[in-house]
Write a structure and sequence with these properties.
Blueprint (H helix, E strand, L loop, with lengths): L3 E2 L5 E2 L13 H4 L13 H13 L2 E3 L3 H4 L7 E3 L1
Parallel strand pairs: 3-4
Antiparallel strand pairs: 1-2
Protein name: PIN domain-containing protein
Pfam families: PIN
Length: 78
């Protein structure tokens, strides 16, 4: 089992931190173009943003362009 450093300085496994692996559907991947804001040009990042918005998840990132999507309702951590 792998352990990761959390923001409080201790180590925990992803299951304890409530991380989830999300399935990616063809429907979701083929509809990310509907994302109204166009801050990010990378199609993979836009797909991650679209999925997070539709599944009510937060993204952990330091990417400044992704953070701009908070105006669309995206929750960003870090």
């Amino acid at each position: 089992m792998r352990y990761y450093r959390s923001d409080i300085g201790s180590y925990c496994c992803p299951q304890e931190a409530e991380f989830r692996i999300l399935p990616v559907s063809i429907e979701l991947c083929s509809s990310f173009y509907k994302l109204s804001a166009n801050h990010h040009k990378d199609p993979f990042d836009r797909t991650l943003i679209w999925q997070a918005l539709h599944q009510g998840c937060s993204l952990i990132t330091i990417d400044k362009d992704i953070r701009k999507y908070t105006t669309e309702g995206l929750q960003v951590v870090w």
